[in-house]
Amino acid sequence: MRALHLDTPLLLSGPLSRVLGCRVWLKMDCWQPVGSFKIRGMGRLCQQVAADGARRLVCSSGGNAGYAVAYAGRELGLPVTVVVPQSTSEFARRLIRRMQAEVVERGRSWDDAHEYALTLAGEAKTAYVHPFDEPIAWEGHATIVDEVAAQNLRPDAVVVSVGGGGLLCGILLGIERHGWNRTRILAVETYGADSFKQAADAGRLVTLDAITSLATTLGARTVAAETMRWKARWPIEHYLATDAEAVNGCDRFLDDHGTLVEPACGAALAAAYNNAIQLRDCEDVLIEVCGGAGVTRDLLDGWRSALDKAVGVSAT
Fold this sequence. Notes:
The chain is an alpha/beta fold. It has two domains: 10-36 and 136-310, Rossmann fold (3-Layer(aba) Sandwich), CATH 3.40.50.1100; 38-131, Rossmann fold. The protein has helices at 14-20, 38-51, 64-76, 90-98, 110-120, 135-141, 143-150, 166-177, 195-202, 225-231, 243-257, 263-273, 297-315; strands spanning 10-12, 23-27, 56-60, 80-84, 102-105, 126-128, 157-161, 184-190, 236-241, 284-288. The radius of gyration is 18 Å and the shape is globular.
């Protein structure tokens, strides 16, 4: 079965290497056909449910997973319905519709969209494609590590953005498979979308009252339970970025590498640009540039302008 994702480049970043004083490697999943890593896991999961007899796909998503499922459905010849929350941008909705998928809006956050999508999945030969809490998807995301290992790199640390935790679970699955026993994880979230950090602090899953970060694609109010099982057996450290730092990470990455990414990815880049203390003893750092389809130059400028206005208001 032909994979729907691409093997993406592994680049040595001069600018980020100078900031951290070590070799910083970029896994460029922002260059996937749908602009993000999501096609790795979503593509594999869609192929599996299609082989099992599904004739329609339903997904709930803040944008990236839905776009990946829509792309996979088009490639597989299956109709797709993507349920999005109010926070999903019109640009991301247009991308999903371009793949001939239906877009339905429900609720303020991904969790609301998820609940409604489950009701649609009860129909005959309809499969619900969970955007992050699914072992088959984790296997798809683990191919990131497979590709890095094939290039003979074993980093001291991997920097990864965490929303629902599917990407984190997949990368850890790959790390364990390849025996990278000394590789640490720096799990990055934004304030207001930090369900994993709060769960880690509490020692149990925590459900946020609301997502208040503009990094809405990190907007799962409760992280996948599997992340806590990994937390119990692997060295996972945490980094929280402000929305302003995440947007600044996007800006600097665009200047340094000519590539647009969403704030959800900018948060991980911010950890490196801010010379995070957790990375200062490393020789090789791998950053998963998870990307994000729902971004344009105008959107990035709008986020920065809104943050600048908020700072101005708070200062008066």
